[in-house]
Amino acid sequence: MAAEKDQRKVRREESERPPSAIPVSDIKETTTADVVVVGAGLAGACAAVSAAESGAKTIVLEKGLTTMAHGNYNGVFGSRLQKELGIEVDRAHLLTDLMRWRSFTADQRLVALWFDEGGQVMDWLLDLTEAAGISVIVESYPWTGEWTDHYSAGHKFEGGNAAVLSMLESKALELGAEINYQTPAVRLLRKQDGRVTGVVAETPEGDYKQFNAKAVVLCTGGYGSNREMMEKYSPWALSAVTSYYYPQLNTGDGHKMGLWIGAAMDELPHCSMVFDGRIPDSLVYYTIARQAWLNVNIRGERYGNEMTPASVMARVDMLQPGHVKWSVWDGKWEEEVAIFGDPMGQLMPPAPEYRETLEKGVGEGHIIEASTIEELAQRMEVPQETFLATVARYNELASMGEDLDFGKPASRLTTVEKPPFYAAKTGGAFYVTLGGLKVTPKLQVLDTDTNVIPGLYAAGNVSGGFFASLYAITVPGISHGRALTFGRLAGLNAAAETT
Ligand SMILES: Cc1cc2nc3c(=O)[nH]c(=O)nc-3n(C[C@H](O)[C@H](O)[C@H](O)COP(=O)(O)OP(=O)(O)OC[C@H]3O[C@@H](n4cnc5c(N)ncnc54)[C@H](O)[C@@H]3O)c2cc1C
């Protein structure tokens, strides 16, 4: 045990050596709060409003110019809206399903916490959004999955999560919280192996300011924009990182600050949110290449069942040579997409919008249009003989109505025979990292000896334990679901420490 502990310490010294302390003389100002929340994304905003609601003097430090918001879906169960719609789910079945997606390597207590508390937290959010006149629906209801179970979890607010964040920002201010933008936290302050007592942040003027606190809640998001951390913690996702999707300010600051004071990190490699269908250098990706067309690698070979959920497909594609694939379809696409529907979270828009995107993709050179299969192969620069054999075999399977090679359902087994022929080269699209500092079900950060670091909480993508292995799109919006549920709970728990 002692030897193991020493080894851990050595590993840490090599890779996460704390920077030197900021000299006291460089600290231009010191202020005091009950709770300091670091980061104003969904987790941080929920933590801040919750702490301020509890009567704690709350200060928020945010690196960017504004709050951070993405996307639309917020996945939880048991909200009053879901109850009104009659949406019920078998708890044991869902938890086992989610743990299966995680290869049973996540902390099931955290998954259960999200399930058990998410509905109540959503009700709290619904009170706030209703008061602000923001309407909400539960998307994907009813939604029947063919590859996997799908659950009607995604609460979608009018104006997306940007509207929610803006409302939460106003609410935090109304409750007396102080929000400091362009003020990144740079160090956590911890008494020798004891409590965390605050943070030091950089002000917009370039000075250092100390924020003393009875509790600190880290909500700094992921580390997708920190290449070194990606290489170390989520290397499998690197090929999917392009400039389009991931938030630039997510540089793993909270992870690092935690590690520097002795926090424990999730096991490697971390789970990240990556979907399939990215067309390099283009935003024309969702509607075309994410369908269950024939997929081949750059050698012209088919390599699996194309009808798998977006996050799974991405992992499969990224294992191919060059981490890319060709998605191949033909002139019957309009009839086929009508049958495909949305079985895998593949977001199929109505045909007119699809046509517009297709034409744009062809016009910009991101999609190849050819009048023969041979011409298509030539322009794809795949070995022609192999590709023609692949298409012939695929057409044979489609005519038989049975995918004897990889088990794709017959309803998605469409031939490639009617000109014009299309192909798009795509890869994974990286969004956010999902691994982080180990936390207890109270969202308290653990050290490498699995002891709680007093006074330190973490929520959202800086925290760990909840995701592992594959991102389960089976529950739409589960990463926001975690961020808002754990953000609120961390804010409440931190505030409770201060009274
Ligand atoms: C394009 C896109 C669409 C998405 N759509 C969905 C969706 O529909 N459903 C879903 O569930 N998930 C979605 N996600 C993922 C989801 O948005 C994230 O998992 C979620 O935002 C995490 O929330 P968070 O509060 O932990 O982190 P973030 O939202 O990343 O917020 C972290 C905040 O901390 C700040 N920060 C960083 N470092 C510091 C520092 N040193 N000091 C102070 N502040 C700091 C950042 O500037 C940021 O404001 C999407 C992601 C992207 C990129």
Short description:
With 499 residues, the protein is of the alpha+beta class. The chain has 2 domains: 29-271 and 434-497, 3-Layer(bba) Sandwich (FAD/NAD(P)-binding domain); 273-430, Flavocytochrome C3, Chain A, domain 1 (Alpha-Beta Complex). It has helices spanning 2-15, 42-53, 80-84, 91-101, 108-131, 160-174, 227-233, 253-260, 286-289, 310-318, 333-340, 351-363, 373-380, 384-400, 478-497, and strands spanning 27-38, 58-61, 73-75, 136-138, 154-157, 178-180, 185-190, 196-202, 208-218, 272-278, 294-296, 325-329, 367-370, 421-433, 444-446, 452-458.
Structure description:
This protein has 499 residues and is an alpha+beta fold. The protein has 2 domains: 29-271 and 434-497, FAD/NAD(P)-binding domain, CATH 3.50.50; 273-430, Alpha-Beta Complex (Flavocytochrome C3, Chain A, domain 1). The protein has 15 helices and 16 strands. It has helices spanning 2-15, 42-53, 80-84, 91-101, 108-131, 160-174, 227-233, 253-260, 286-289, 310-318, 333-340, 351-363, 373-380, 384-400, 478-497, and strands at residues 27-38, 58-61, 73-75, 136-138, 154-157, 178-180, 185-190, 196-202, 208-218, 272-278, 294-296, 325-329, 367-370, 421-433, 444-446, 452-458. Strands 1, 2, 6, 7, 8, 9, 15 and 16 form an 8-stranded mixed sheet that branches. Strand 15 (444-446) and strand 16 (452-458) form a beta hairpin. Helix 5 crosses helix 15. The longest helix has 24 residues, at 108-131. The chain is elongated. The protein starts with a helix and ends with a helix. The model is unreliable at 343-347 (pLDDT under 50). The protein binds flavin-adenine dinucleotide.
